[in-house]
Amino acid sequence: MANLTQDVITTYAAPQTFLSSDQWKQIQAALLSQLPLRNIHWKSLSRPSLRTIQELRVKLLPLDSARDEHASQIPLTILERPLLNIYMVICEDNDTYKNVVRKQIKDWHSAVSQRKNQEWMIMYVDRPDTKAATPGFFQKAVLDKIRADFNLDKRDRCVQLSWSTGCDNPSAWADVMTKMKDGLLSAFDSAIAQREEDVKRLEAQRQMPGWNFCTFFILKAGIESLACSFEGVNLCEDALLQYEELEASFFQVLREKNLSWFGTLISPGAKDDSLPLLSSDKKSYRDLILANTISIFDFRVYLLARQCSLLGRMAKVVQVARKSAAFLNTFGRRLLEVQEKLPPFFLESWTYSSALSVVEECDKWASNTQLDEPTLKLHQAGKGELVELARHQLDILGVRLGHLPPRPPFSSVSPTVTPDTATFPKDNISNPELTLALNGAEVFYDLYVRITNRAIDLFKRAGRRKFALRLHGSLAALDVHRGRLSTALQTYKSLPAHYAPHQWSSLLSFMLSQAIDIHSHLANPTDREWITILLAFLQTYVDGLGSDMLIPEDDKDAYVSGLVLSLKTAAETLDADFPHDDHHAISLILSSHDAALAETKDGSYLEIDVRNHLSCPIPADQISVVLAGRDAEKLRYTADVKSFIAGNNRVKLFCAMSSQGTYAWDSTEIRISRLVLQWRRHPSSANKSNETHQELPFIVHIPKDYAAFDVQLAQPYCTELWTAEKALVTVFSGRNHITTTTVKLSSPSGTHFQCREAFLSEEDGRSLELGDDSITLMNIEPETTISFLVPHASSSGHSLHVYVDAEYLTASEPSTVRSLRLSRTVTTSLPVSVNVQDFFRGTRLFSKFTISSTSHQFVRIRSTRLEVREPGADDLQISDCSSARQGVTTVTPTQPANVLFQLNSPMGQARESLTFTITYRMLRDEVEALISAVVNNIVPRSTTSPGNREVIINRLLEGLEKNGSWVELYIATGELNIPPIEELDDDLKSMLLKVKEALSSNRPEITEGWRDLKIPLDVPRVDIIAAAKIRILSSPFSTEESPSHRLPALYAGQPISAVMTVTTSFHWGSNSEAKKRSYRMRFDVEEMIKVWLVSGRKRGDFIATDGATYEVPLTLIALNHGELSLPKVAITPLPVADGSAMGSTAVPTTETYQVHGAEKVLILPRGGRSTFVLDMGSPMSYSR
Hints:
By secondary structure, the chain is an alpha+beta fold. The protein is built from 25 helices and 49 strands. The strands form 13 sheets. Strands 8, 13, 14, 17, 18 and 19 form a 6-stranded mixed sheet that branches. It has a 5-stranded parallel sheet with strand order 4-1-5-6-7.
């Protein structure tokens, strides 16, 4: 009964003479060639959806050989009886039909119409070869007669077949096939509806006396059931639905405990423990059901076999494996309750054999179809679970027979009672493979390994890696039991790395404890590998809280304590530090976000809570916390310890570095001899992309220790632009008596500091020990500041980022080397920019300097000087042309300062180098120095510590930075108005009030902090200075210039006589020989067509010599009246015709200034009078 697909019986009938003819044989062969029927669509009224029968096999039988009364009274399916009856008619005229054929059809129709749930069809065979003798009219009339005589229910059951010899064309049989499908579906539908009605009626009688579940089963889903009928026509889903409903009915009966129609729970036969589980014909299940003697065991097995057979036909092998595994587990637990009534080891042998037989059956079904990748993995996983179930039975058998030890991982599924292995009956198990395995330990081990490896392979193919890893642990345990310790140790060491991602704490701890015990049993050295295993075990012990650990020791605390002591001993034997990251046995948390200053020495304290999650103390030597700041700055806090007791431990750590600012908790280390346990707060960049939630950094604030050692960097107080750039390094000893300190400077931009060329900014008898990359100072008293300058390569950009690494020893702690890493920024750009404009006037040069701020800050300028760097024989005279100034000039981003100097060179060309010096300081530095001076006067050193003075100064500066309303008042009057400052204690608040009063009344004059910026300059050189002038003559005949007040009145439109003169000078040329040369030059009078008309030689060339004057007469006519400016004259040099004049063909440099540039001429309007006489009522008269 593995496959109940049946042929649907269809009968045929015809006159005997036709059935014995060759023509019938041909028609029969052609009809069989059109079978089986395909794509039959069944729509039942009792089912919501359309069913499609992909293929339906039809069996043609003569009517006489398929008599209905020969059918069984309890039919297997409704397909045992014919569903369609066909009568074939061959008639050529109406008379023959009327006299002979009609009676034959009536007799046949009377016989088949009496049969229930059967359909009939009349097939009229039309022979084209007879149409020539017999008209087609009569052929049609015979078919019409048949339809009129027998289609009484308005349903056409007659079909015509146009037959010719050898006709197997599907189109010729299309109508016949359609009628056959309709007839078969109609009969099938009525039979199914009748059977379902019978089942409903019987099910409704469940509570009535005499109702029998086995009879209900036979009618519902047994040998002649609806399910078998559906399966016979390839409607497997409908068949499976019947079995599911039947199974639900059985469970209902089981819950009602009304099992009187069944035999015992189980009556094991001779080979019941090894027969294939999914075979439905291994027993006469039908006879047992009819006799009401079938056991529940056999009934459940038969029901499962039928369901899995249907699932297998539908290629649902995944469901077959799952359903079988669930059945073996659930019904196996039911049989376990009556195990004492079963033969020894029957349950284990039945489960083992059934699981493996299901795997083989699934492989057969899967080989007939193509499974996609996801389904194939599920299929392999289902088989793996079945093979693992079979392996569990070997665990039970092995423990009971003494082949396996009664401990994990074998004892977790073993019974609590172990029978005597000597009395084991060897004939109760019919599985030959198990029989051989149970009679010999080595054979059993081989079978155990083979079955386990088979399950591992299936799980690997299914992608269930963790299931495979769990089974590897069982093989390792088997190796331990068999004495193969080296192999077991390798397995136990390799498995934890695979278990850890799945968080199997119990199994992981078991594997690790086994590895530790085997390692100890083999007397292997406690090296790094052993320490790694031990640390992994302690971590799983903590993660599992010690309760779910599958370790054999009863006193787990003592076991763990011994391991921790062994860890300390093993760490002492290491030859180098052994780091280990993120161990869970210890958790750490800083107790505060603020570090505490040591106050009596440089450094700060930090407290940390160390929680030991083990039940025993953890020995340790040192604990350290690393804080990370900006620019890779790291601070290390350390403390020496002996051990950490179980629970919470608070430790106070110290850092000797005097850094200040905001830091992030970076890492923590606990040193156990050579073993270094590390915890990093921030994951690496490779792991950050995999974390959906990152832990926020733990911020630690370290206050500034104003009395600690410090190093500051700034620009030097005197900047000479013609020398190398320098950085001013200021070392402050603070509270410390520094015996020696070494300062190193570096920059991430690659700027090189020339430490060997460093020098003190002020000579005070000290000396510097200079190295290639370091500067060392000796014997610095407390509260002492030392400054020195360090040249460095030119840097591009506004500022220079510098790392300062300083190490120093103090007299109070000569053995403690303190290090300090600071990040400083030195402004390399100048705070001001200077633009110069030069104006040549004969032997004098006027230079205008415009000083602008290059940033948003205000610059205070005390003085400016222009000096000859090295005075020479030329005796260049420099004078400041600016008006006498009082106080200091402030340069803002929007308001530059202008300075004018006059240079006079009466002796000839000046070749000296000049220096322009600006004495300045930033407004912020000036205010800070002012506040510091006032605070030092109000708060003397004897009454408070330097730290408090610095706090007051910083709070005042913070208040000024937040509110800039004081700036304008301070620049205008010098009065400093401090904004309100909050959050101060009483002592500081009283001091602050005194400082504010002093700043608003009498403030000291600050002379420190001024910086000099020295800019090198060269005296400009111009080959030709041309002075152009246009002068008005009093008359056309005048030759001398008249003063403007003696000129006659000038009117618009009046011709005005003028003379243009050009005076050239070579005084500011490149050398003294230039005065002897001559140049060809060109003049051009400016065109002012809206103001002046110029008559005369407006453009021309002339020869220029030193001190010569060239004149050109002009006539000017003013076009407008008013004060008018005279036209300007452009003077340009011409290239030298040959190379003798200049020594080259270059055009000489020339500067032209207009002597009359500031003069204006008063032009009057033309004089005259006009009289208008108006006479009302008479024509207007006009006289002039």
